[in-house]
TrEMBL record:
UniProt keyword RNA-binding present: no
Primary subcellular site in the record, as a coarse category: nucleus
Molecular function (Gene Ontology), one example: structural constituent of nuclear pore
Localization terms from the record: Nucleus, Nuclear pore complex
InterPro entries, A to Z: Nucleoporin_Nup85
Record protein name field: Nuclear pore complex protein Nup85
Keywords of the record: Membrane, mRNA transport, Nuclear pore complex, Nucleus, Protein transport, Translocation, Transport
Length: 829
């Protein structure tokens, strides 16, 4: 029923081309493009060619990694210089990460509530409350980000400022063109440039550009969090080229007041921020404002408890952002920075009026009434001045009356009475102005026409804004109280709009119940969180797109698709992997997606890896992939016993053998052997957990150590060393012979272990090897000597050592015969 074409350009980005009046520019003239910070890693080069699985006799196993497909272990020599792999990472703002986590918290609450059985009306109240909660999260995030931009506190919160290099030339090259455009766009003689932290690249970059362009620039930066001599040297270099001032955190949080106090006496001065993080904040704020408006309009039609009644204040909330934009000029008028006789003042009142800012218009009119006026402005047929007449009319508007209980019928009667009375009084005023004695104040005429419901005047001051047009028609043309009437009003106003934007088409679709279009458009142009949470609330709505409240919603597949898209987009960002996987848990086949994402995550810390396994991973294949990555990490850190223990958990015999052989050849030392006990301990612990998982249907299988001779030898060899240290030579000899008999000792260790036993063979006090064991060891010695690989097995062992070993074995054989004969003779008595 629904089809979606995904064209979202990132986790948190959005396409501003479809939205009117959305610009991010320091001077409202420059559109800035943002580039991601490059990250650089150094890695040894490798090849997936099958020839890499073979090593020559002369080359050693230096390092190992798993191939991307996980099919083979890659062997290669280390590259000392390394090769640089460069890629760009779009870092998600920390405030955005917090916002997305907060959204998930409420999403999870929604799913818990949805599982409970309640009557449909109670469910609708729950949905309405959740809608308000989501909106409060959006508005709270906007407030926090606005404050962070104003005070500069984002410098302390964002990851891009941690361990930043103020002399990063590559990062400077990426941002140079953008900063140049900002500095060029200044029209004044002096430009104050806010560079963010002195730790960043921007103080040095702005200094270089300002010297090149030759405008007078004053650089303002915040003090460093981690002072170093290198950073101080850079600041000293900048001071020799450009004027720069380093402010404390408190001073930088009031940087605009600082400019006014220190440079306010200069005639021509402008200020601009160049920090890219600052612009990302501004861009995100603009988007969240837009998203909040979309959410408010959707709530108006679908998440309203009283679905048959609409309050005008609910509509005014939808244009709250546009109302706030008018407040700066309003404050200027009230503070007398703008004269009340100025035409700008009257024009601004008309703009306030179409936005429903009644109180502000009354305040300005009250300020005007105290100013001296001409006779034409004072004379009125109603024996009131035109200004006082307008004040009386606006004061009587029902919108200003506080009502504890909203009664739509009573309110409708009040609005009709107010509209009739106001139009009668204003008509009388206009008629009286037609005579030569009483002339109409032309400045007040637009306000009067708006109150009379003149469509042309209303449309002019709405500036083609769809929601403003709806508000104006509701307040001054035809007041409506029902949702159905409001839907008709939306349709009528939409027909008036010329070249409507996509966002206005979304608003109309909400009004006309064509939910297909807004969800598809939002998912196309907005970040995935907006369409996902809207569709989820609509899915749980007891009356929307259901044949009956007990029937399943027709939005089931749409919600499933959007949840999948949102979860995957979050999980693709390592910083948001956890919240992304949490969303995917609610999707059919979501566990498969979780396993795919986690298996491709770079593993840095054992704690995080085990957390992923405990919380999300169910596939044994994915667990094995994580264990292998942990093994690689420990191998690189030279924690060889731990690396081997992780491989044991994968039950991958071939790789365990491969690593064991390498350790036998290169790392068989006391440190490794002392850590070897961790293999048994960790294997026992994980096996216990696996047994618990198996009770829950897990497919895990336990690795049988007895099936791997190399691993058994490592463990037994450690026991041999401990027995030797404890001087338990009898137990040592028994264990060694048993190891030879079980054929678990690699042949390149035979000569080494036999040579270690020479002191026991030559002992005059005790015979540690009996006749049969000595004969068996002699047989082993001859076998290794006659082997065609004897040269390889006898490296660093001389012929003299072998002759000494032969003699020692012969002496021990003779002693064992004598001891055996003596024992037999004693047994006869």
């Amino acid at each position: 029923m629904f089809s979606f074409s995904k064209q979202n350009d990132g986790n948190n980005g959005f396409n501003t081309n479809i939205f009117p009046n959305i610009t991010v520019s320091p001077f409202n003239t420059v559109n800035n493009t943002f580039e991601t910070t490059p990250m650089e890693i150094t890695t040894t080069s490798s090849s997936t060619n099958s020839s890499n699985n073979k090593t020559s006799k002369s080359s050693k196993f230096c390092n190992f990694k798993w191939s991307p497909t996980g099919d083979q272990l890659l062997l290669f020599k280390p590259n000392i210089k390394g090769s640089k792999i460069k890629y760009q990472v779009n870092n998600t703002l920390s405030s955005t990460r917090k916002f997305l986590n907060d959204l998930y918290t409420h999403f999870e609450s929604t799913q818990r509530i949805a599982n409970s059985q309640v009557v449909p009306d109670d469910r609708l109240r729950e949905i309405s409350h959740l809608s308000k909660t989501y909106l409060s999260v959006i508005l709270s995030t906007i407030s926090q980000m606005v404050k962070a931009c104003k005070t500069g506190s984002y410098i302390d919160n964002e990851d891009s400022y941690i361990n930043c290099d103020p002399n990063d030339k590559e990062l400077m090259d990426i941002n140079r063109e953008r900063v140049e455009n900002i500095l060029k766009s200044g029209s004044s003689n002096t430009l104050v440039v806010f560079c963010g932290s002195s730790d960043s690249i921007y103080p040095l970059l702005c200094s270089q550009i300002s010297n090149k362009l030759k405008p007078k620039c004053i650089l303002i930066a915040r003090e460093t969090n981690q002072p170093t001599q290198q950073k101080q040297d850079i600041i000293n270099t900048i001071k020799r080229q450009t004027e720069i001032r380093i402010l404390s955190k408190e001073e930088y949080s009031n940087r605009y007041n600082y400019i006014a106090e220190n440079f306010g006496n200069q005639d021509s001065i402008e200020s601009a921020d160049v920090d890219d993080v600052y612009f990302k904040y501004i861009e995100e704020i603009e988007f969240l404002y837009l998203a909040s408006t979309v959410w408010k309009v959707a709530s108006l039609f679908y998440f309203n408890i009283s679905s048959s009644m609409i309050s005008p204040n609910q509509l005014l909330d939808c244009i709250d952002n546009e109302r706030k934009e008018l407040m700066d000029t309003y404050e200027g008028i009230m503070n007398k920075r703008i004269e009340t006789s100025d035409p700008v003042c009257f024009d601004h009142m008309a703009k306030l009026l179409v936005c429903g800012c009644i109180d502000q218009v009354i305040s300005i009119l009250g300020l005007m009434s105290k100013a001296p006026r001409s006779a034409s402005q004072i004379t009125s047929t109603a024996r009131k001045s035109p200004i006082n007449l307008l004040v009386d009319i606006l004061t009587q508007i029902p919108l200003k009356k506080k009502q504890s209980n909203f009664n739509p019928n009573e309110t409708l009667l009040q609005w009709k009475k107010w509209s009739t009375d106001s139009k009668r009084q204003l008509t009388q005023y206009i008629d009286s102005g037609s005579s030569s004695k009483n002339q109409i104040d032309e400045n007040l005429l637009p306000i009067i026409k708006i109150l009379l419901g003149d469509q042309e005047t209303i449309r002019y001051y709405c500036k083609n804004s769809f929601l403003q047009l709806v508000i104006s028609n509701l307040l001054y043309v035809e007041y409506v109280t029902s949702t159905s009437a409001l839907r008709s009003l939306f349709t009528q106003c939409y027909e008036i709009i010329q070249e409507p934007s996509e966002i206005e088409k979304i608003f109309l679709s909400f009004a006309t119940k064509e939910i297909n279009y807004p969800l598809k458009t939002i998912s196309k142009y907005f970040p995935t969180w907006l369409s996902t949470h809207l569709s989820d609330l609509l899915y749980h709505h007891p009356y929307f797109m259901r044949k009956s409240p007990s029937e399943p919603s027709e939005l089931t597949k749409v919600r499933e698709h959007l949840l999948s898209e949102h979860g995957q987009s979050l999980a693709s960002d390592p910083a948001l992997l956890q919240v992304g996987c949490n969303y995917l848990k609610y999707v059919e086949n979501g566990q498969f997606m979780i396993d795919e994402f986690i298996s491709r995550q770079p593993i840095q810390y054992e704690k995080n890896a085990l957390k992923m396994i405990d919380n999300w991973v169910t596939s044994q294949e994915t667990k094995n992939s994580i264990y292998k990555m942990l093994s690689v990490k420990d191998f690189q850190r030279q924690r060889y016993a731990s690396a081997l223990s992780w491989l044991i958990l994968t039950n991958d015999s071939s790789r365990i053998t491969q690593l064991s052989n390498y350790l036998l050849e290169n790392q068989l030392n006391s440190d490794f052997l002392n850590d070897l006990q961790s293999i048994l301990e960790k294997n026992l612990q994980i096996n216990t957990n696996r047994d618990n998982n198996n009770n829950n249907g897990s497919e895990a299988s336990t690795f049988d150590i007895s099936s791997n001779n190399e691993l058994i030898f490592l463990i037994k060899y450690r026991e041999l060393i401990n027995l030797w240290k404890e001087r338990s030579f009898k137990e040592y000899s028994s264990l060694l012979c048993q190891m030879f008999k079980d054929k678990i000792i690699p042949k390149n260790f035979w000569l080494r272990l036999l040579l270690d036993c020479i002191p026991l063979f030559e002992s005059n006090k005790n015979v540690y090897f009996n006749y049969q064991d000595t004969l068996f060891l002699q047989t082993c010695l001859e076998e290794i000597i006659q082997s065609h690989l004897f040269d390889q097995y006898s490296q660093s062992i001389s012929n003299q050592d072998i002759q000494i070993l032969r003699v020692s074995l012969a002496r021990n054989l003779a002693k064992s015969i004598m001891v055996s004969t003596s024992t037999n003779n004693l047994s006869l008595f």
